[in-house]
Amino acid sequence: MRIVAERARRTAGVGALARVGDVALTVLAAAGALCIVLVVLAFTLNISLIMFSTGSMTPTIPAGSVALVREVPATEIEVGDVVTVDRPAALPVTHRVTEVLGTDGEQVTFTMQGDANADPDPAPYTVSQVRLVLGSVPHLASVIVWFQDPVVLGCLTLVAAGLVTWAFWPRQSRRAVDPEPARADPDQERDTLDHT
Fold first, then answer.
1. What CATH number is associated with residue 113?
2. Fewer Cβ in 10 A, N or C end of the chain?
3. What is the pTM of this model?
């Protein structure tokens, strides 16, 4: 009886560990699939992520947000769109389009202003390409920055490698785990014979 109880306890422990491992592998697989989808979107649709370090677009896009943006021709923008414009020798700026001043071929001249700013940007922008903001997630920038830390990346790599190794490690056969088969109780065998 003690052998059966010990075997059941050992099996329950291994089963719980296997379930935790399966969940961890599923989470890693989902994260990997998401990364693949983002890479495909980036190459096929010119979609990328940008992080907001200032609050000039608050409350629409608060500081610390991450936005999904798509590169489009400047001729497609309209008043009210939130776009990112690259500036020479300066960081890109993401503000709302307030007025389209004119179009010259592919070049468009327009003005912008941050939702939290009292005044419009000091000068109009003339560009042929902009990145249109499709949506944003508040407070996600700090999570992305945390994941970019080399120590965190190293630990995640080690954990992922350990889980993959564990998942594909050869399992012991049942006989190797339980070398002695459970023996029937002689009294129970005698009772069974008496009743037949």
1. 2.10.109.10
2. C
3. 0.61
